[in-house]
Design brief:
alpha+beta; 4-stranded antiparallel beta sheet; two-stranded parallel sheet; 40% helix; globular
Length: 173
Amino acid sequence: MNPYFGEHIREIIDHEKPDGVIVQLGGQTALKLAKLIHEKGIKIYGTSFDNMDIAEDRGRFSDMLKELNIPYPRYGTAFNTDDAIEVAHQVGYPVLVRPSYVLGGQRMRIVLNDEELEKGVLSLLKHLPGNKILIDHFLDRCQEAEIDAIFDGEDFHIMGVMEHIELKRNSQR
């Protein structure tokens, strides 16, 4: 998030003194601003900040799926390359490597072996230092989709449906 943009949001909130705001639409920028708004004590209409945090913290999200008995791929988290390789060996290649606290697939990659994993983790740590890294077993030949929707307690409106399409790779498996 651009610090100037965050400061502008603070100024608008201080000036307008709203009862609450909606941060659902707008992708990663809106999600990052949610923390600032939450810390300011402004009510967030719709999805709570804590629930947005669950969605962004991939480990926390997977823990919730486990608690709700919803099937999910094997996963683990790491903060360095050694831990990442250990997790990848536990969950099994191929793996999907991505930073936690990033939605929309930003910096996500599929890797097939330790060498690719090490390169991927080093790249993540370079661009997003200190970020937790999530390593999921990659489910080949599966379909993944998401929706953007608003629910007011009575009516559920779907604004968009998107299927995730992974780039095909020449596999050395």
